[in-house]
Design brief:
Layout: E1 2-7, H1 13-24, E2 27-30, H2 31-40, H3 44-55, H4 61-73, E3 81-84, H5 90-102, E4 109-114, H6 117-125, E5 127-129, E6 136-138, H7 165-188, E7 192-196, H8 201-212
Parallel strand pairs: 1-3, 1-4, 2-3, 4-7
Antiparallel strand pairs: 5-6
Adenosine monophosphate (AMP) binds near residues 64 and 92.
């Protein structure tokens, strides 16, 4: 099974992606994670992406398509893949179609997590992330067992530099502009399933399971 998972910043996409990955044995490919890795490693791509990500702007299509191309070359996705945060624009969706044909990875479904913007803001302001393993918490909804520390590796949790109101508004503006094109692309291919992303993580996950099964 090969899935594309669409959803705005803080829609719960990362959390749900981990659950899908665990249950269905998929490998999660997240452009946000790959870009953050490039920034940490200070690669040439990371140096270009860093200021754009800090401002909540999209990284140019050719660079993002390039990192997906590189990721596909690792050849470990034959058992199923979940694309998280990609594609985010029309040209990225078209490029992904071509890359998937070349790699014999046909798409099974495109899930779009739908959450109102007021809820997204509340979620972003309470979000804390682990800088080493990428685990995500929420101060109220999903706090870590020990305050301020990651449950998995004990690292001190941080607020991502793009997790504030101003940057979120910027990210959502880009999302509002581009994502309808991506959704239209997959609706035309009869692959799109819209899922209500409001409620507790397990409730949302049950909706996702119903669609996948
Ligand atoms: P995310 O972790 O998915 O919220 O992504 C964090 C940031 O990485 C975004 O705000 C963008 O700056 C950048 N990014 C991630 N995926 C893409 C993409 N598919 N196209 C362009 N920029 C992206």
């Amino acid at each position: 099974m090969n899935l594309v998972f669409l959803g705005a910043a803080a829609s719960g996409k990362g959390t749900q992606a981990k659950k899908i990955e665990a249950e269905f044995g998929l490998v999660q490919v997240s452009t946000g994670d790959l870009l953050r890795e490039a920034v940490r490693a200070e690669t040439p791509l990371g140096r270009i992406a860093d200021p754009l990500m800090k401002q909540g702007n999209l990284v140019p299509d050719d660079l993002v398509i390039g990192i997906i191309e590189e990721r596909l070359k690792q050849g470990d996705l034959g058992g199923g893949v979940l694309f998280d945060g990609f594609p985010r624009t029309g040209p990225q969706a078209i490029a992904l179609d071509e890359m998937l044909i070349r790699n014999a990875l046909p798409l099974t479904k495109v899930l779009s997590l739908e959450v109102p913007e007021s809820v997204l803001l509340e979620r972003v302001l309470g979000r804390r992330s682990c800088p080493t393993c990428g685990a995500v918490y929420h101060l109220k909804a999903a706090p870590p067992k020990r305050e301020g520390l990651c449950d998995h590796d004990g690292a001190a949790l941080v607020v991502r530099s793009d997790d504030n109101e101003e940057k979120l508004k910027n990210r959502l503006a880009g999302f509002r502009l581009e994502i309808p094109k991506v959704k239209a692309h997959y609706a035309a291919a009869k692959l799109l399933a819209e899922i209500d992303g409001q409620g507790a993580p397990d409730v949302v996950y049950a909706r996702i399971q119903a669609v996948i099964r």
